[in-house]
Amino acid sequence: MTGPADRQERFNPGRFPIDDQRVYDAYIAGRKSAAIAAAVRAGLFDLLAGGALPFDRIQSEMGWSRRGTRSMLDALTAMGFVVIAADGFSASADAVAYLTRGAEGSLWGLVDMEVDSFLSPAALLEALAKDKATVYGGEDPWKAHGADPEKARAFTAAMHSVSERPAAGVAERLDLSASRRLLDVGGGSGALSIALARANPELECVIWDIPAVCPIADEYVRAAGCEGRVRSEAGDMFAEDYPAGFDTVLLSQILHDWSFETGAELVAKAFAALPPGGRIVIHEKLVEDGDSGPLANQLVHLDMLVWTEGQQYRVNELTELLERSGFAGVERLRTAGYWSVVHGAKP
Ligand SMILES: C[S@@+](CC[C@H](N)C(=O)[O-])C[C@H]1O[C@@H](n2cnc3c(N)ncnc32)[C@H](O)[C@@H]1O
Q1: Which residues line the pocket of ligand 1, CB cutoff 6 A?
Q2: What is the mean pLDDT of the chain?
Q3: Which domains does the chain have, with CATH numbers?
Q4: Which mutation among 117, 140, 159 tests ligand 1's pocket best, with the greatest number of atoms within 8 A of CB?
Q5: Where would I find the beta strands (DSSP E) of the chain?
Q6: Above 90 in pLDDT, residue 93?
Q7: 256 classed as catalytic
């Protein structure tokens, strides 16, 4: 959202006839991430979710200086996430829905992680130079999660936060009524499995993830009341064959963590494990063919550069990958916001 001043006529000096607005706006945009991450970590939106509060009360509750409180409220008002009301400041409807702790589908966990793992230009330059995940000082992120339960918990919370709303989109848009047993490869918190089990009463799901993540997934499954139909199982999608006995394999935000060659191996393993008629479902934020956006998904390439060995897929790359692996009837389905599935069946 832009404030009134952004809509005013801009004056450019004749000496510099090329407008600098797109460059300057891109440069300054990082402050938006910083402002919402700081506000989320400090609990500003949780405070304002209960209704409008006067400036002095916000300042004392947040424990910020007057200058700091004013600067944050002003910046967040300009972004549209804080709204000036007759009796003070309140949070916008989308800030309450997606920037508060504990709200279903909230992006709180994702945004909060920015405080510790902000995608800085320095991190990006390091990743470009090294061409490997640099987010934990060069350590393999999955090994780091295996060694440090707190890192695994924070990452899984962030992924849950990313995935809960799109999972509801997959559950609503993708017909899985013929599926009975779904293997959620690298299923993380189980956000997808939980949503799909809720939408398909005859479906059982197994979240197949590294040992450090399984107990965390179990907590999410219990909290969702899905223990009977969703469970976790520790495994290694590279060292092991996929477990047998599943008619559907889901890879949600897995392929984008790895190179195209490794992605092809993971899809080939799914093909080998599935019976004839079995389904594969890939869930990703896709880049449209011809690199024609959306911008938000093309920017995720940079997160993948810093965090993983992967990249975002283009629609045709994923379609071709499934077809080359032997899947038929491959189709792309938009599911929610920036999200899509590409799915197909083993002949
Ligand atoms: C980007 S997260 C995706 C989580 C979940 N599918 C979602 O969409 O919310 C990648 C997941 O892959 C898991 N993972 C990484 N290496 C793995 C391996 N070798 N075997 C099984 N799971 C793995 C991670 O622990 C993590 O939960």
Answers
A1: 142, 145, 159, 163, 186-188, 191-192, 209-210, 213, 235-238, 252-254, 257
A2: 94
A3: 4-98 (1.10.10.10), 163-345 (3.40.50.150)
A4: 159
A5: 82-85, 88-91, 181-185, 204-209, 230-234, 248-252, 279-284, 328-336, 339-345
A6: yes
A7: yes
